[in-house]
Design a protein that fits this description.
Order of helices and strands: EHEEHHEHH
Strand content: 15-25%
Structural class: alpha+beta
Helix content: 25-40%
Number of strands: 4
Number of helices: 5
Largest sheet: 4 strands, antiparallel
Distance between the termini: 41 Å
Shape: globular
Oligomer: single chain
Strand order of the largest sheet: 1-4-2-3
Length: 138
Protein backbone atom coordinates (compact mmCIF):
# COMPACT_ATOMS: atom_id res chain seq x y z
CA UNK A 1 0.00 0.00 0.00
CA UNK A 2 1.32 3.42 -0.94
CA UNK A 3 1.36 5.95 1.88
CA UNK A 4 1.35 9.66 1.36
CA UNK A 5 3.47 12.04 3.41
CA UNK A 6 2.36 12.41 7.02
CA UNK A 7 2.22 15.89 8.52
CA UNK A 8 1.19 17.47 11.76
CA UNK A 9 -0.35 20.88 12.27
CA UNK A 10 -0.95 22.84 15.44
CA UNK A 11 -3.88 25.26 15.27
CA UNK A 12 -3.91 27.65 18.24
CA UNK A 13 -6.89 29.63 19.47
CA UNK A 14 -6.96 32.43 22.05
CA UNK A 15 -9.43 32.29 24.89
CA UNK A 16 -9.75 28.50 24.84
CA UNK A 17 -12.53 28.77 22.27
CA UNK A 18 -12.87 26.54 19.26
CA UNK A 19 -15.48 27.58 16.76
CA UNK A 20 -17.32 25.32 14.37
CA UNK A 21 -15.66 26.30 11.07
CA UNK A 22 -12.85 23.76 11.21
CA UNK A 23 -14.75 20.47 11.48
CA UNK A 24 -16.72 20.86 8.20
CA UNK A 25 -13.52 21.71 6.33
CA UNK A 26 -11.73 18.67 7.80
CA UNK A 27 -14.71 16.51 6.86
CA UNK A 28 -14.51 17.84 3.30
CA UNK A 29 -10.78 17.09 3.08
CA UNK A 30 -11.31 13.55 4.34
CA UNK A 31 -14.36 12.90 2.14
CA UNK A 32 -12.51 14.08 -0.97
CA UNK A 33 -9.58 11.77 -0.25
CA UNK A 34 -7.18 14.67 0.23
CA UNK A 35 -6.16 13.67 3.76
CA UNK A 36 -6.69 10.86 6.25
CA UNK A 37 -6.81 11.89 9.91
CA UNK A 38 -4.41 9.79 11.99
CA UNK A 39 -4.63 11.64 15.30
CA UNK A 40 -6.42 14.64 16.76
CA UNK A 41 -5.61 15.89 20.25
CA UNK A 42 -6.55 19.08 22.04
CA UNK A 43 -4.17 21.00 24.30
CA UNK A 44 -5.64 23.55 26.69
CA UNK A 45 -3.75 26.04 28.82
CA UNK A 46 -5.79 27.93 31.40
CA UNK A 47 -5.21 31.50 32.56
CA UNK A 48 -2.85 30.27 35.31
CA UNK A 49 -0.79 28.24 32.85
CA UNK A 50 -2.08 24.80 33.88
CA UNK A 51 -2.13 22.46 30.89
CA UNK A 52 -4.51 19.63 30.01
CA UNK A 53 -4.51 17.24 27.08
CA UNK A 54 -7.65 15.68 25.66
CA UNK A 55 -7.89 13.07 22.93
CA UNK A 56 -10.88 13.38 20.60
CA UNK A 57 -12.57 10.29 22.04
CA UNK A 58 -12.29 11.72 25.58
CA UNK A 59 -13.98 15.05 24.82
CA UNK A 60 -17.35 15.89 26.27
CA UNK A 61 -20.00 14.69 23.77
CA UNK A 62 -21.14 18.27 23.15
CA UNK A 63 -17.58 19.36 22.31
CA UNK A 64 -16.79 16.35 20.16
CA UNK A 65 -20.09 16.28 18.26
CA UNK A 66 -18.75 18.68 15.59
CA UNK A 67 -16.19 15.99 14.68
CA UNK A 68 -18.67 13.07 14.55
CA UNK A 69 -18.78 12.92 10.76
CA UNK A 70 -15.01 12.96 10.26
CA UNK A 71 -13.73 9.52 9.46
CA UNK A 72 -10.23 8.49 10.42
CA UNK A 73 -8.18 6.18 12.57
CA UNK A 74 -7.76 8.72 15.33
CA UNK A 75 -5.65 7.46 18.16
CA UNK A 76 -2.79 8.28 20.49
CA UNK A 77 0.08 8.76 18.07
CA UNK A 78 1.35 11.94 19.73
CA UNK A 79 3.70 11.27 22.63
CA UNK A 80 3.45 13.07 25.94
CA UNK A 81 6.72 14.81 25.03
CA UNK A 82 5.24 16.01 21.72
CA UNK A 83 2.25 17.49 23.52
CA UNK A 84 4.38 19.09 26.23
CA UNK A 85 6.50 20.85 23.61
CA UNK A 86 3.37 22.18 21.93
CA UNK A 87 1.96 23.32 25.29
CA UNK A 88 5.13 25.30 26.02
CA UNK A 89 4.41 27.46 22.98
CA UNK A 90 0.82 28.25 23.98
CA UNK A 91 0.11 31.48 25.80
CA UNK A 92 -2.06 31.24 28.92
CA UNK A 93 -5.82 31.05 28.32
CA UNK A 94 -5.49 29.45 24.88
CA UNK A 95 -6.03 26.10 23.20
CA UNK A 96 -4.66 24.15 20.28
CA UNK A 97 -5.95 21.40 18.06
CA UNK A 98 -3.05 19.12 17.17
CA UNK A 99 -3.69 17.12 14.00
CA UNK A 100 -1.70 14.37 12.39
CA UNK A 101 -2.78 13.52 8.87
CA UNK A 102 -1.64 11.59 5.86
CA UNK A 103 -1.60 13.53 2.61
CA UNK A 104 -3.46 10.79 0.76
CA UNK A 105 -3.52 12.91 -2.40
CA UNK A 106 0.25 12.28 -2.67
CA UNK A 107 0.26 8.54 -1.91
CA UNK A 108 0.53 7.49 -5.57
CA UNK A 109 3.45 9.76 -6.42
CA UNK A 110 5.17 8.91 -3.13
CA UNK A 111 4.95 5.20 -3.89
CA UNK A 112 6.13 5.72 -7.46
CA UNK A 113 9.18 7.66 -6.26
CA UNK A 114 10.07 4.90 -3.76
CA UNK A 115 9.59 2.13 -6.34
CA UNK A 116 11.84 4.06 -8.75
CA UNK A 117 14.56 4.15 -6.08
CA UNK A 118 14.10 7.83 -5.37
CA UNK A 119 13.64 9.59 -2.07
CA UNK A 120 12.38 12.94 -0.90
CA UNK A 121 15.34 15.13 0.05
CA UNK A 122 13.57 18.40 0.85
CA UNK A 123 10.07 19.51 1.76
CA UNK A 124 8.99 22.76 3.29
CA UNK A 125 5.72 24.66 3.48
CA UNK A 126 5.91 28.28 2.42
CA UNK A 127 3.71 30.52 4.58
CA UNK A 128 0.73 32.07 2.77
CA UNK A 129 1.83 35.62 3.57
CA UNK A 130 5.23 34.99 1.94
CA UNK A 131 3.55 33.69 -1.24
CA UNK A 132 1.13 36.63 -1.27
CA UNK A 133 4.03 39.12 -0.98
CA UNK A 134 5.91 37.33 -3.78
CA UNK A 135 2.89 37.63 -6.07
CA UNK A 136 2.48 41.30 -5.15
CA UNK A 137 6.13 41.98 -5.92
CA UNK A 138 6.20 39.97 -9.16
Amino acid sequence: MDLGPVEYVVLAFPGNRFRGEIAPELKSLVASGTVRILDLTFVKKDADGAVSYVELDALDPMESSVFDDIEGEVGGLFSQEDLELIAEELVPDSSAAVLLWEDTWAAGISGAVRRAGGRLVAHERIPADVVERAYENA
